[in-house]
């Protein structure tokens, strides 16, 4: 996929405390945002996107909460693309594609599911390298 995120017309940002309830809140917000953007709950990309999002938020809560008391979910969409990122202020930047094919769950499942849907996964460091966003882009 080569969609430029800047070209996606729909945007939404959610910031939540880095605690267990963040997963539920992020999922519910995702469902609401997609419906508002005309992407129905039964669209074949929605369930996998919710699973991917849940894994990323769970990872931020489990591994980054000490450095990052909040996490942010950024959503963007266009006619044929849904993109989202989970951002936290922990400096560790995982090598996403090194996990593919390991079958160990978590990020490996995120990457395998994303690639299986024809999407992309990218880690983008903050300018100060003290945080990162993991961006997932999926075709609709």
UniProtKB/TrEMBL annotation:
A GO molecular-function descriptor: ATP binding
InterPro entries: Anti-sigma-factor_SerPK, HATPase_C_sf, HATPase_dom
Any single Pfam family the record assigns to this protein: HATPase_c
Coiled coil: none
Domain of life: Bacteria
Keywords (A to Z) from UniProt: ATP-binding, Kinase, Nucleotide-binding, Serine/threonine-protein kinase, Transferase
Residues passing through the membrane, by range: none
Protein name (database record): ATP-binding protein
